[in-house]
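name: query_chain
kind: protein
chains: 1
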Amino acid sequence: MRAYVVAHPEAREVLRWFDASSAMTFTQIPVRVEVALWDPYVPPQGQFAVANAVGDLDLEVLPAGHADYPGSDAVRAAAIRHGRAHLERVLGAS
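structure:
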């Protein structure tokens, strides 16, 4: 993709509409983002790029994503609790 944009710089403006980190700059509400330090499907660098683009951020860093590991059930349960709490705060404030 980088090589294509170098050859066709005009593509950058179109591609930013399909990039999650670019899209997150348009958010106008508090956003909860859970990133993983390791993930077999989504590179952590991309996850953190999305999180860094959010203005009003509720961030949680997980040890791993899309994988089972010792303690993952407890981590998932906590993430669900924190996600629900985030929604209650955001929806309660509206």
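note: The chain has one domain: 2-93.
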